[in-house]
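Q: What residues go here?
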């Protein structure tokens, strides 16, 4: 059976951390930042982390093997 292919569109938008979490860039940071508050802009700079069933689905489409490892958060 052939290996599953990586979804090329997702590869450009999501990345995996060393512990297997799915990281993404938050929307709304491309332009028109002058009217947004400083707190909002600062929070948008940090990468977002996916959780739950969607995380497992994205990991599978990115070609990661197996479920995400357990974390003590």
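A:
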């Amino acid at each position: 059976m052939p290996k599953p292919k990586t979804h090329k569109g997702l590869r450009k938008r999501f990345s995996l951390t060393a512990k297997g979490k799915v990281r993404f860039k938050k929307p709304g940071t491309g332009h028109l930042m002058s009217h947004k508050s400083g707190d909002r802009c600062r929070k948008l700079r940090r990468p977002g982390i996916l959780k739950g069933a969607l995380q497992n689905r994205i990991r599978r489409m990115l070609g990661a093997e197996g479920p995400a490892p357990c974390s003590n958060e």
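A: Context that may help when evaluating the design: The chain is about 35% helix and 10% strand. The longest strand covers residues 14-16.
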